[in-house]
Amino acid sequence: MTHPEPETTPVLALEEVSKSFGAVRALRGVSLRLYAGEAHALAGENGAGKSTLIKALAGVHRPDAGTVLLDGAPVEFHGPADARDAGVAVIYQEPTLFPDLSVAENIFMGRQPRRSLNRVDHRAVKRAAADLFARLGVDLDPDQPARGLSIADQQLVEIAKALSFDARVLIMDEPTAALTGSEVARLFGVVKTLREQGAAVLFISHRLEEIFALCQRVTTLRDGALIGSEPLEGLTEDDLVRRMVGRDLDELYPKQETEAGEVALQVRRLTREGVFTDVSFEVRRGEIVGLAGLVGAGRSEVARAVFGVDRFDGGEVEVLGTSLKPGAPSVAMAAGLALVPEDRRAQGLVMDMSIERNIGLTGFAETTRAGLMNRKAERSRSVDWAVKLQVKYARLADVVGTLSGGNQQKVVLAKWLATGPQVLIVDEPTRGIDVGTKAEVHRLLSSLAAEGVAVLMISSDLPEILGMADRVLVMHEGRLTAEIPRAEATEETVMAAATGRTKEGSAAA
Amino acid sequence: MTMTAQPVRSESAPRPTASRQFIDKVFKARELAVAVVLVVMLLATQISNGEFLSEQGIKDLLLNSTILVLVATGQAVVVITRNVDLSVGSVLGISAFAAGNYLQSGGNSLIAVLLAVALGAVFGALNGALVSLGKVPALVVTLGTLYVVRGIDSIWVGSRQITADGLPSGFVDFGTNGISVVPYLALLTLAVLLCVGYYLRSYRSGRDMYALGSSPEAANLAGVPVRKRIMTAYVLCGALAGLAGALYLARFGNVDSATGNGYELTVVSAVVVGGVAFTGGAGTVYGAALGALLLTSINSVLPALGVSSVWVTAINGLLLLLAIAVDRILALRVAAVLRKQAAQMRSARHD
Ligand SMILES: Nc1ncnc2c1ncn2[C@@H]1O[C@H](COP(=O)(O)OP(=O)(O)OP(=O)(O)O)[C@@H](O)[C@H]1O
Ligand SMILES: [Mg+2]
Questions:
Q1: A366 CA to middle of ligand 2, Å?
Q2: Whose CA is nearest to atom 16 of ligand 1?
Q3: pTM to 2 decimals?
Q4: Continuous H helices in A215-254
C-alpha cells in the first residue's frame, strides 16, 4: 500500500519559501505539507537548510519569499509566540533553557497554570512537570535548576516542553541526537500516540533507521533546494542517502585493522564522589575503544575527569607513562591528551568567534613566536582542518554561531584534531553529523588509530560503537560493568551490560 | 537498531528530598546571610554603645534606609533582566526638585508625589526604549541618560534650592513622623517592596523577567515579549526612583541640582550585596532590600562605634567583594550537593 498525498488540507504548510542569510541561500523555493495524523521526516546533509526551514515554520525567521499556510490559509507568524498560540510545538536542535530556573519552570515558561487573580500556581507547575517526566519515563527532579544538566537531559526537558501542550503540529529538530535507545523508544511511543490522536509531526534525524521507524513520508533537501517529497514505504536507506548526498555512499564504518601497541592511557580506580566509582581501563596505541552506556551512566563525566575538566577524588590517570594531576587540562594537553567535548555550545566553541579563531584556540603553541601570534600560520592551520572535515562555510572569518549544527560539530573536531594528540577522547563525535560526513569522521578516527593514536570513543549511537570499536567498555550507573572484545560485541551483549542485566564483576581491567 | 532496546529507566525512583531542601536553603541562605550579618552588626554596636538602638536611633536607621531600599527594589528588577539602570540618581534628583518646585508654588502634596512618580516613569520609559530598541548595552545607554538627565536638572534648577520652609507642613510631617518607631516612609517602602516581590514571584510577566535575564535567546524562543518586559522593568525602576525623589524631599526638605549625585553606585552595590546576580536571572527584591539596609546601617554603625566615616566607602567596597566571593563559594557547594543527590538517586534505583 502506498501513501498518496492525502486529499485533506495540510495543517501547516510552506509554499515556495526562500530564505537567505547574506550571501548564503539557506532555502530556495521549498514547499512542505504537514498532514494531521502523519509523521513527516526531513532529510538532508549538514547545512542543507533543515533547521532554517523549521525556524520559518515556527515564526523565528520571516521567509524572504513564499508563504506559510495554516489550515490552508496564509498566515504570518510575527514570532515564536504566534506559532505556539496556533498550536505549533517546536524542539529546536540546540537546547535553549533558562539555567537559573527550575526544570519545571523551564517547561512552562509563559504558559504556567494559574490560580485566582491570575497568579502562577507553582504547585501545579511542578506537578505537571512531574507528570510529563513520568510519561517520558525520565528521572528528573522538577525542582532542579537547569544549570548543569547533561545535553541528553536538556534534550529531554525540551521534549517535555514540546509535549506539555496539546500541539496540533509537533516539530522536532534532531531530538534524539544525544539519546540512547531506551529514551528514543520512549519518545517514539509518546509521539506515536500523539500522531494517532491527530497531530502532525515533522521529524529530523541523521539516524536513518529512526526515520524509517517513526515516519510515513520524507522530504529531502540538498543545498537549500527541494529534492523530493515521497512516502517512505518502498524506500531503502540507500535510496534516502542517494537523495540527500546525490551519490552512493561508501562504507559507513570503514574500520582498518590495526595492531594494538603499548598502553597509552591508563586509568586506575578512578572515582569522583557521587558520579562514578572505581573505574579502571586502558587504551593502547592503535586501538579504538568504545565507551557505551545509557544516558546518565557517567561516561562523559569519566572523560571530563580524565582530561582534568573536573577533579577526581581518587584513583590515577597516566598518559604515556606520565601521571596526570587532577583538574589540570593544560597538563593533560601537554601530555598529548585531547578531549572533544559533548556540549559544543557550552564547552566546545566560542560561539561569537570566527571559525578560524576557534580552531586556532588550541594551537597557540604552534602559531605563536616570542609571544606574538602568527595570524597567517593560524589561518593555514585552520583551512587545512576545515577542508579535511568538509566544514560547509562561506568564509573562514564567519562567526561559528551561524553555522548549521552539524558544521559546528565539525569545527569542534577540527579544533582538537589539529593539536595532533597521542590520546584522543571523543565524546559523541558524530552527534548531529550527516551520514556522508559521519563516514568521513569514522575514516579519520580509523586512520588516526592506524597512525598509532589511542582513541577512546564515547557514543550513544550503538551501531557506531559496534562498527568502530576494537573493544567496548560499558558503564552502568557510574560503574564499569563490562569489557567486550570486538568479536563478541553485539547489540544484545552491550545493551545487557548497559542496563545492568549482566552480573557485576565480569569487568576485567 | 538503536531503538530496539527496552526502556529501563524506572518510572518512580525515590527522590532524596533532604538534599533538595538543603539546596533550597542554600539559595535562600544568600538572603539569610545578609540578614544575619545585619543583625549581628546592629547588636554588636548596641552592646558597645547603648545609645545606638534608642527609639530615635531605630527611627533614624529606618528613615535613612527607606530611600535606598526603594531605589534598590526597582534596580533589582532591572538587574534581574540582565540590564542595569545607572540613571536612577539623576532621576531621583530631578523628580525631587520637580515635586518641590510644584509644592512651593502652593500645590497639593499627593499630586506632588504622583508628579514625581510620573516623571520618573517617563525617564524609565526613555531608558527602556533605548535599551530594547537600540542594540546598545544598558550600561552605556543609562550612563548616557545619567548625564543627560543631570544636565537638564542643572540647567533647570540652576542655583535655586528647595528648602523645608517652602513646603506644606503636612508633607514635611509625613516625612518625619510615624507609628511609634516606624516612620510612615518605611511603611510605604515596605508595602512597595512586598508588592514588587509578590509580582515577580507570582505573575507570569514577573517570571518572564527571570527568564529574560537567565537566557535572552531562550526567552525569545519561549515567546516571552522581550521588549515589553524590558520596558516594564525600566518604567518600574524609573517610577520607584521618582517616588524615592518625593520621599527624599519629604524627609530632608532640601533639594538642589546636586541631589542624588553618585547615588547609582550605592544602589547597584546594595543590589549585588543582596544577592541579585549581575548576570541576570537570579535573586530577589527582598535580598536587594536587605543589601540596602546593610549598607545604610554601616553608615550609622561606624560613627556610633567612633570610627571615622572616611572608612565607610572602603568598607562598602569590601562588602561588595565579599558578597561576590560568597556567591561563588555557594555555587560550588550547590554543584557538589547536586552531584551527591544524583548518586543517591542512582543507588536508590540500583537496589
Ligand atoms: N543566523 C544565520 N546567519 C547566517 N547563516 C546562517 C544562519 N542560520 C543558518 N545559516 C546558514 O544556512 C545554511 C543552512 O543551515 P541550517 O542550520 O538550516 O542547516 P541544517 O540542515 O539544519 O544542518 P544540520 O544538519 O547541520 O543541522 C548553513 O549554510 C548555515 O551556515
Ligand atoms: Mg540543523
A1: 33
A2: A49
A3: 0.82
A4: 237-245
